[in-house]
Design goal:
Radius of gyration: 15 Å
Distance between the termini: 27 Å
Number of strands: 2
Structural class: mainly alpha
Strand content: under 5%
Helix content: 40-55%
Length: 172
């Protein structure tokens, strides 16, 4: 399981929703996102990072990880689209007006590691509301193996070709 232990969830989540979120946390941890930097009082941030991963992969509570989508599948979801997905599929009631908060606190954590990448719309401005995000195709390929015997090899292969955010922060 992940080195970061998420013990609280926001809202009335079903067991299936909680399980998917915990799996998302484990994936992020194993892909090198430094979740250990968050204190026990910041569990909501960890939950939201996992929810972003689930959303961009189009993973609903009953969707298998093998169906994870990426930019190669034409996925490009705006921050408001991310909020809508989380509200609909993960029992949240996040205001659509908090889209900028999502960008600063969740997307900007995952972008430097390249787990997520900009979608297809070329940005005319940094804050263009049409800008979308997607899971990087290489990362999606590994994520599709989560929960299978091939998972550890897929992660090892992916990480051998990059410097993770955890490694970047440890060398600063």
């Amino acid at each position: 399981m992940a080195s970061y232990n998420l013990t609280r969830f926001t809202g009335a989540k079903t067991k299936q929703q909680q399980r998917r979120i915990l799996e998302g946390v484990e994936i992020l941890d194993q892909l090198g996102i430094p979740l250990e930097q968050y204190t026990s009082r910041q569990q909501r941030r960890i939950e939201r990072l996992a929810l972003v991963l689930l959303t961009l992969g189009d993973i609903r509570p009953n969707t298998p990880w093998s169906k994870t989508k990426s930019r190669d599948n034409g996925v490009s979801i705006t921050t408001r689209g991310i909020i809508d997905f989380i509200n609909e599929h993960y029992s949240e009631s996040i205001s659509r007006g908090s889209y900028d908060d999502f960008k600063r606190k969740e997307l900007d954590v995952l972008l430097p590691d390249s787990i997520i990448v900009p979608g297809f719309i070329e940005r005319s401005a940094v804050n263009d509301s049409r800008s979308g995000y997607a899971i990087c195709p290489n990362h999606a390929e590994a994520i599709r193996k989560f929960g299978t015997p091939e998972w550890n090899d897929a992660v090892e292969s992916l990480l051998s070709k990059k410097t993770t955010l955890r490694q970047q922060l440890n060398t600063s």
